[in-house]
Amino acid sequence: MSWPTIGWENLTDGAADELADAAASPIYEENDTTMRTRTTTILAGAAAAALALSGCAGGSGEGEGDLGTEFITVATGGNSGVYYQVGAGMSQLFTDELGSDSTVQATGASVENITLLKDGDAEVAFAMADAADQALKGEGPFEEPVESIPAIANLYEQYLQVITLEDKGIDSIEDLKGKRVSVGDVNSGVELNARTVVEAYGMSYDDFNADYLPYAEAIDQMKNGQIDAAFVTSGLPNSSVTDLATTHDVKVVPFEGEGLDNLLEYEFFGEGTVPADTYDSAEDATTVTIPNLLLASPDLSEDAVYDITKTIFDNIDQVHATHNAAKDITVENAPDVVVTELHPGAVRYFEEVGAL
Asked: Count of CB atoms within 10 A of residue 295's CB?
């Protein structure tokens, strides 16, 4: 989507000055993402002012954003996780198909990603449904409700996995008591999941020694005997756990009993299984699944999100090639989002192809 031509005569003095400053100023002493987001915001404001003052109604409708696809930052997760691998493939598609200046950003995942969207520092982001739910309600790590985090698509199911080693004597969630446990990176969806699981089993972090580690670091510390178990929420398989399984006997702790029943009361959790052959474990493990959502910045226009959605699903084979978990992404299931609403641009695409 291209910017409308901005007539300087249509701008207020303040808007014109800001646009001129943006064009003439040297590079900001900040990171590239912040620099271009700020510049894009100024351009967006200038364009909006020009349209309003000239009486032009082109572009997006009432209540929609006005940013196009010139810049697309894709907020993902740690660079050893599935989010990052799938997001990197999507970012490349946006560059190749839309001509976007697109980058993939490694983050702490869901919570941080939603904050990046809210603050205008990302255009597209991965997040789990429970994090989106808490953001909209202003619960958990979100002190105030986030007004809008529209979805582009439902992607694939994440599997909540508690990973340990066969010789650690951990056969149930309750056996985590007194152990050294990684609960995920700070401000990650994994940590939200860990807290929910522990509470569902009538426990708290006080029952074990909790450490806040990303996947790769948690697995390294498990190899070195520094932790006994780690919460890992991802598609199957998780590459860090696969690496661990090449040198150690991995056990996936099953979710069972009343704790499992409590988890399944949440609308966004479903029951799933981690097959034994995923990590060469001794047996299958019952667990819970949670949908992954691809979210859009509310600043993106309907046309921009339509183009992004079309690019992903018209090139779905390339997305599938990024990771085994991505093979579950289909245009038929994509409109089935929970917690939040589909962005109007995504709705337009799914209606066009008969998926909605």
From this structure: 29
b/e sequence 302-318, b meaning 16+ C-beta within 10 Å: bbbbbbbbbbbbebeeb
Q: 250-252 and 151-165: which strand pairing?
A: antiparallel
The overall pTM is greater than 0.85: no
Q: Which of 61, 58, 52 lies closest to 12, judged by CA? A: 52
Pairing of strands 124-128, 229-234: unpaired
pLDDT at 38 (0 to 100)? 39
From the number of C-beta atoms within 10 Å of its C-beta (0-12, 13-18, 19+), residue 16 rates as middle
One-letter amino acid of 152: I
What is the per-residue pLDDT across 29-43, written as a single tens digit (0 to 9) for each? Answer: 333 433 444 344 444
Structure token digits, residue 116: 């990046």
Q: 298 is written with which tokens?
A: 């509310």
- Taking only the tens place, the pLDDT of each residue in 241-259 is 999 999 999 999 999 999 9
Side-chain half-sphere of 356: how many Cα atoms within 13 Å?
A: 18
